[in-house]
Design goal:
The structure is a single chain. This protein has one domain. With about 90 residues, it is mainly α. It is built from four helices and no strands. The chain is globular, with a radius of gyration of 14 Å.
């Protein structure tokens, strides 16, 4: 099925991270400012958090955000620059 997509469709699908999230990775219903996502290694916490932040920023619901990690380097290398980090999602699913 994916092989039948045009290059433009494939790029758009890749950029819509909401498509790639599992049901348990979507934010809970409601207007949340803080959301705890508790899971083990590989549970998709970083991708879910990055998608949640990005979609709230794009929707102008958030302007300033804080990321908390063990060290500055950990927060930046994983939550911002990592493959699932904040720079990974480019669009929110609509």
């Amino acid at each position: 099925m994916l092989s039948s997509l045009t290059q433009k469709e494939a790029r758009e699908l890749e950029e819509r991270t909401g498509f790639w999230l599992r049901p348990e990775q979507h934010a809970p219903e409601g207007n949340w400012r803080i959301w705890l996502l508790l899971g083990g290694r590989g549970a998709g916490k970083t991708l879910a958090g990055a998608h949640w932040l990005a979609s709230n920023i794009w929707a102008s619901r958030m302007r300033r955000v804080g990321l908390i990690g063990a060290t500055h380097h950990d927060a930046r290398s994983v939550m911002v620059e990592g493959e699932s980090g904040d720079r990974a999602p480019k669009k929110t699913s609509r």
